[in-house]
Amino acid sequence: MTGAAPRRPRADALRNRERLLAEADAVFRDQGTDASLEGVARRAGVAIGTLYGHFPTRTALIAALLDARNRELFAHGDALAQHPDPARALADWVRAVVRHAAAYQGLAAALAARADELQDSCHRLTAISERLVDRARAAGALRGDTTGADVFTLMNAAAWARAHDTPAQADRLLDLALAGMIAG
């Protein structure tokens, strides 16, 4: 029958998806994004085929986990674009992105790889970063040779450091880097 509305997912399929997301969140927080997907499926009480039926790739699962968190992050970035202090807005954005990317060990690498499933999020993250960098530069609050690519690399490096060292040490290094980028 053509023109029929698509069928809504069954209630058990929706429950499986939600359980998979909850268990993936717990496993990725504990073991990182390279953790066993079979382990995620087992913890959710479903077969690995069910996991792949909902999330055909590891990156698709990561993207689904990040969906709500990305919306919150992007709204924060959009609000920072209106902040009266462009240098502070940029620094706040960098710190927010670093915390976001450090939620799961290995997430910074997944974001840096810019996999197809994460492309839209990466483009949005980059656009907000560029807007905040341009605004800080126009206000004279940023060293003239600092680029959006520099800021993006700093965010990935700081997220990696946060996942591999103590958050306090990673934040200290981030503060030092920001102090070097932000004009006097």
UniProtKB/TrEMBL annotation:
Pfam family, one: TetR_C_43
DNA-binding region: 36-55
SUPFAM superfamilies: Homeodomain-like (SSF46689), Tetracyclin repressor-like, C-terminal domain (SSF48498)
Keyword entries, A-Z: DNA-binding, Transcription, Transcription regulation
Stored Gene3D superfamilies: Tetracycline Repressor, domain 2
Ranges for domain HTH tetR-type: 14-73
Keyword Transcription recorded: yes
Name listed for the protein in its UniProt record: TetR family transcriptional regulator
